[in-house]
Amino acid sequence: MSELENELLNIVGLNELKVQLRKWAKGMLLDERRRALGLKVGARRPPHMAFLGNPGTGKTMVARILGKLLHMVGILPTDKVTEVQRTDLVGEFVGHTGPKTRRKIQEAEGGILFVDEAYRLIPMQKADDRDYGLEALEEIMSVMDSGKIVVIFAGYSEPMKRVIASNEGFCRRVTKFFHFSDFNSEELAKILHIKMNHQTEESLLYGFKLHGSCSVDAIARLIEKETTEKQRKEMNGGLVDPMLVNARENLDLRLDFNCINADELRTITLEDLEAGIKLLTP
Asked: Could you tell me which residue ranges the AAA+ ATPase domain spans (predicted)?
């Protein structure tokens, strides 16, 4: 459970989802104890889900963490997450969509199939238009009772209603709906801190750190001051990466070329962050 809690620290907000993950983890551990005592208990079914919310609210990132967590607690045999969109599933001609979708399903077996912008499978159209998105959805639905895969459908809340209404078995199979709210300034500041603390070697920010003055409160005040509510709602977590990249560039501009102080060379200040976020404002 401690490993689970460490992973949950990387998810900002989404308390409802965190509670559900703790239920699954504790349930799996209790099932192990039940079996150790000779009790016979039924196997848990993989939970299919819908992630509803605006872009940048962390749906894809949470799906990746979820893959690790469901594997960790024994619900899935692997931690792989196969991310797909309409173009990965739907063919242009009759007979193309079924095989194309089945290949992706097979690729995802043992893990999560994450269908991003799932509402694009059921576009708004006239009755006489021919579209193969529904065929792809039906292919996915046909394997959701097999127990070999967890499917997560993701997209804007309102258009996703088309997907839910398009197949009568949707709500029977997809039993968990999680709403991803827009991030406020404090949550965006927490995300920035998490990103800086978990940089990989491939990241442009790898090896850099925040100055001590860059507390969550200070960054939250900066974001609140330099962005509009509309901008925060449109960008959400997508605001953080370009802000950090711009801040690093400002650090390079600010430093004297002859600087040999290792700490100064890798420390991003509140001034750098302010310059970085101002470049995002039209």
From this structure: 45-179
